Amino acid sequence: NNTKCCLLFLPARMAQWSVILAVIAALGGAALLSSVHKIDEGHTGVYYRGGALLTITSGPGFHLMLPFITSFKSVQTTLQTDEVKNVPCALISLSAVYDIVRNFTADYDKALIFNKVHHELNQFCSVHSLQEVYIGLFDQIDENLKLTLQEDLTSMAPGLIIQAVRVTKPNIPESIRRNYELMESEKTKLLVSVQTQKVVEKEAETERIKAVIEAEKVAQVAEIKFGQKVMEKETEKRISEIEDGAFLAQQRARADAEFYTSQRVAEANKLKLTPEYLQLMKYKAIAANSKIYFGNEIPQMFVDSAREGKYRGPQGHPGVEDRLLHSRGPAHSLAGNFSPLTR
């Protein structure tokens, strides 16, 4: 009987150990599975222990943590889109993840963006008409909303940056929408016509400027040519003045030379033409004549005695004058040489 009891006890003990080992293996597997976790690319892991946020963070990849008492959440650090009027939200600085999650939890975008977008859009719509919201100021909503959100994020959650905001058209009745679309189409046509007019005006202004430039160029060329002609004429005038001056100096020098020559000749003649020399020349002139007139009335011949003077012959009788004008009474002609009388 004792042998049978031992044999029955051994299988019971083995079954208990098997259960214990199975439980341990299950717990170990569960602990291993809960401690190993993966962080995707573009995300940062933050950890909680006992509900308290830990200061450690982890990057992309597989990591280990204490099982059962530590949990994690993956926070996206790249560009993400929150479906609040299709507003794209932005990047989180890696160094700011801990502070943002600590202050606003891992669902920070609900408190900082979702609710804020609703509030800002409602406030904008409350102070503007439907026409302004749908057409007039619609292109300004994106930038205004971005600036407003970024101002709040800069003070409340530094490191969270709004990259861009895109707001879709509001839902309005179909009839109103068609009217607004028609208005927008007309506005577009007006803008196109205005731009076309500006282009035409700019082209006309360009043509005018080109014409002015061409006219100025022609005027400058004409002015340069005129200046060249003036300079040429001035040069010719200067050359002519120089030539005239040279010719005048030459003529003056020649006249001075001739005057000096005449003056010297006159002075020489004055010294040369003595009464004796003049008388000799008179006799030579008379002797050179081939004819001579004489007679009883020769002393009464008319001569220009006042101007030329008389020559008295021997014994006080009048002599032959330099110029014989005429004689009175009968006269005889005698050919031959004439010897002057001696005094």
Topology (elements, then pairings):
Layout: H1 2-35, E1 36-39, E2 43-49, E3 52-58, E4 61-64, E5 70-76, E6 80-82, E7 87-89, H2 97-104, H3 108-126, H4 130-136, H5 138-156, H6 174-272, H7 275-287, E8 291-294, H8 305-308, E9 332-335
Antiparallel strand pairs: 1-4, 2-3, 2-5, 6-7, 8-9
Helix pairs in contact: 2-3, 3-5
Task: Describe the structure in your own words.
- It is found in: Endoplasmic reticulum membrane.
- Belongs to the band 7/mec-2 family.
- It comes from Sander lucioperca (Pike-perch).
- It is a single chain.
- With 343 residues, this protein is an alpha+beta fold.
- The chain has a domain at 275-335.
- It is built from 8 helices and 9 strands.
- The strands form 4 sheets. A 3-stranded antiparallel sheet has the order 3-2-5, with helices on one face. The chain has a two-stranded antiparallel ribbon with strand order 1-4.
- A hairpin with a 2-residue loop joins strand 2 (43-49) and strand 3 (52-58).
- Helix 2 (97-104) crosses helix 3 and helix 3 (108-126) packs across helix 5 (138-156).
- The chain is rod-shaped.
- It starts with a helix and ends in an 8-residue tail after the last strand.
The largest β sheet comes out as: 3 strands, antiparallel
Radius of gyration: 72 Å
The share of residues in helices is: 55-70%
**N-C termini distance:** 231 Å
Secondary-structure element pattern, one letter each: HEEEEEEEHHHHHHEHE
How would you write the strand order of the largest sheet? 3-2-5
Shape: rod-shaped
Q: Mean pLDDT, rounded to whole units?
A: 74
**What is the number of helices?**
8
Specify the structural class: alpha+beta
Strand content: 5-15%
Low-pLDDT sequence parts: 1-9, 86-92, 300-343
Can you count the beta strands?
9
